[in-house]
Amino acid sequence: MNWLLFFWVVLKAVLFSTGGFGPLPSLHADFIARGWASERQFTEALAIGQITPGPNGLWVASLCYLVAGVPGAILSCVALLLPPLSILIVQLVYARIADRAATQGALDGVVLVIVGFNVMVLARLFFGNGADLRLVAIAVISAALAISRRVSSVVIVAVAALVGFVFG
Amino acid sequence: MPYPESSAEPQAPPPTIRLLFFAWVKIGFTSFGGGAVSQYLIQESFIYKRKWLSAEEYANIIAMSQIAPGINLIANAILIGKRLAGWPGILVSLVGFVLPSAAITVGISAIYAEFSALPRVQSALATAFAAIFGISLATNWRNAGPIFAGNRKRGPAAFGVALAIMIGSALVYAVFGPAVVLLYLAGGLCGAFAYRHSAGKKRKD
């Protein structure tokens, strides 16, 4: 493995995309073309990223581990950490215009889009994978428990997984 | 349902570097369920339990985080760290959040491939995802809540615009599937015009 090339391929994919799944098209093209990864490793890494702690975007670290071991995983983490640092430049600009009403409006508008978009994407995934009455009930109960703040999210996810495993 | 608490709540003094680091480490180790649960735990820890940030401040941070390349939650951690403890805050936030979660992700990757085909494992994944979906509904509710509360004070027109941005962008995405950046741009512009308009009206009154 040429580690410098490997690092560049991952960094490039993260740098020219946004969000956890943003690097997928670029990584897919490069990793498959170079024979570094199989299709199956991609689906596995994506699934693992959704279950394990931290951002879903850590699926990239999972993929890089599957194809290049621990050194690959470490290099991918560095490649994942560098591009978001550019947010500090955005913040400098924000500090200059923060007191205008329109600035707050723009930020609130973006949050509202994120909320609508997030719920839509997750709902599609949820119902697209064949959600039945049992799964809908689990989702509703989990939402209620999360809002009530009485049960920690780890317990909610673990109990749900256990129910699936036992009655699966 | 009541709106989530807003900045009227008293806020705690900023944390020490050590406290900040361990707050992130806890999230890094326990946010099973990926980004949706990480976001929920960040709200839980920084806004509701320790009161280091107000819900409004946090909403601004997530809006800004969308603009940077790469994983938004990492940009989010950078901004929270900077806001609470300056440059050292950025370092401990990144290390505390990403190192444990990346280590667990790699560890589970090593185990997962062996068992992924078992039907029981598949069924457990489906029910776990249902719970993650539910938790993310709660997270999004808490992100949008303070914005709707603020717009109710601005009047029914502003409240209507906020509701239209949220539902409209979801529908436009579902039907036309445009690039998400365009949706952010449209939502941001609508919000900017709406707030400028209501601020101008207030001055005239």
Structural class of chain A: mainly alpha
Oligomer: heterodimer
Q: Give the radius of gyration of chain B.
A: 19 Å
Chain-averaged pLDDT of chain A: 90
| Through-space gap between termini of chain A | 41 Å
Radius of gyration of CA atoms of chain A, rounded to a whole number:
19 Å
Structural class by sheet pairing and helices of chain B: mainly alpha
Task: Give, in order, the helices and strands of chain A.
Answer: HHHHHHHH
Largest interface: A-B, 100 and 106 residues
Shape of chain B: globular
Biggest beta-sheet profile of chain A: none
Helix content of chain A: over 70%
Give the count of structural domains of chain B: 2
How big a fraction of the residues of chain B is strand?
under 5%
Query: Percent of residues of chain B in helical segments?
Result: over 70%
**Rounded average pLDDT of chain B:** 89
Distinct helical segment count of chain A: 8
Overall 3D geometry of chain A? Answer: flat
What's the total number of strands of chain A? 0
Report on the structure:
The complex is a heterodimer of chains A (168) and B (205). Chain A has 168 residues and is an all-alpha fold. Helices cover 77% and strands 0% of the residues of chain A. Chain A is built from 8 helices and no strands. The longest helix of chain A has 28 residues, at 101-128. The model of chain A has no long low-confidence stretch (mean pLDDT 90). With 205 residues, chain B is mostly helical. Chain B has 2 domains: 1-145, no CATH class; 155-205, no CATH class. Helices cover 81% and strands 0% of the residues of chain B. Chain B is built from 7 helices and no strands. In chain B, helix 1 packs parallel to helix 4, helix 3 (55-65) crosses helix 4 (72-115) and helix 6 (156-176) runs antiparallel to helix 7 (180-204). Chains A and B meet through helix 3, helix 4, helix 5, helix 6 and helix 7 of A and helix 1, helix 2, helix 3, helix 4 and helix 5 of B.
